[in-house]
Amino acid sequence: MKAVRYHQYGEPDVLCHEEAPMPEVGSDEVLIKVSATSFNPADAMIRMGLLKDMLPLQFPFIPNVDVSGVIEKKGESVQGLNVGDEVYAFLDMSKNGAAAEYAIGKAVNVALAPKKIDLQDAAAIPAGATTAWQALFEHGKLQSGQRLIILGAGGGVGSFAVQFAKWKGAYVIGCDAEESFAKLKELGIDEFVDYKKDAIEKKVTEKVDVILNLSPISSDDVTALLHLLKKGGTLVSTLNPADENAAKELEVNVVRMAVQPSAEHLAQIAELVDKGSVKPFISERLPLSKLASAHGKMGQTHGKVLILVN
Asked: What is the pTM of this model?
């Protein structure tokens, strides 16, 4: 099969579009004929070796954790999924991924894809949407009527967080660059702060219940946001954490989260997509052979870069 692989850690130019052996299916796995995958910043961090202590790789390695496609084969112990099913998944980050014509996924991480959007487009959903879902509802305990700030609202995770929060009935304040404003307004955001012009601590005057930090700001800057929370409120950060002692003094909660693949969450998200409550924000579509281009643009794009395979 054709795949993009890298044989060592490094810059985007280590990515090679080449022939690779077909993966073998374990008893609890499915073989997916890949329709599309999408780029996540975590894919680049893994490629650069920034996560090698937590996620040691076996080279050559096929990147990309997001996948949509059709089940071609399944292991003998797999139940609830069948050959021919259109599916999507958030794959194990430490195993070969979806930048290939075929990919393997643990059945417990694979869900039926949304039916009301193109199967390729479904590949823009899994990792970003799962992160947003777990951040807001498992860690942030977001409820209807609550006020929420999202830093990095225009990114691949943030755009899903905005939609989930509006579906839940929350009031959403988004912080990002001005070029994201039009899209976020379309997604239903209530207030927008351009971080290039204004400090969010000065623009938000009424305290909020939940803050979701998706931006690469320092821990000191994350800690400074705690003053915007009501007592008992929660700040969830996917990157640098806030100071726990400062949080205790202010009587607020802080969580530094790590997302976990979940077919259950993907099934719930697929229902929202099919109801029209949520849609992926796709900013660019590239062929598999151009995956290195997506890696090279990390931090410069808004929404998701979709990588078309079959």
From this structure: 0.95
- What residue numbers bound the domain in which 140 lies? 128-256
74 forms bridges with which residues in the sheet?
30
Half-sphere exposure (Cβ direction) of 58: Cα atoms closer than 13 Å: 3
CATH number at residue 287: 3.90.180.10
User: What DSSP character marks residue 113?
Assistant: P
Cβ contacts of 219 within 8 Å, gap of 6 or more = 240, 241, 242, 243
pLDDT in tens, 93-149: 999 999 999 999 999 999 999 999 999 999 999 999 999 999 999 999 999 999 999
Peptide linkage before 60 cis (omega within 30 of 0): yes
In a domain, 275, yes or no: no
* Contact predicate 254/242, CB 8 Å: yes
Q: Is 262 part of any domain?
A: no
In sequence order, the 6+-apart residues with CB closer than 8 A to the CB of 90 are 65, 66, 109, 126, 127, 130, 259, 261, 262, 266
Give which of 253, 222, 252 is closest to 240, Cα–Cα: 222
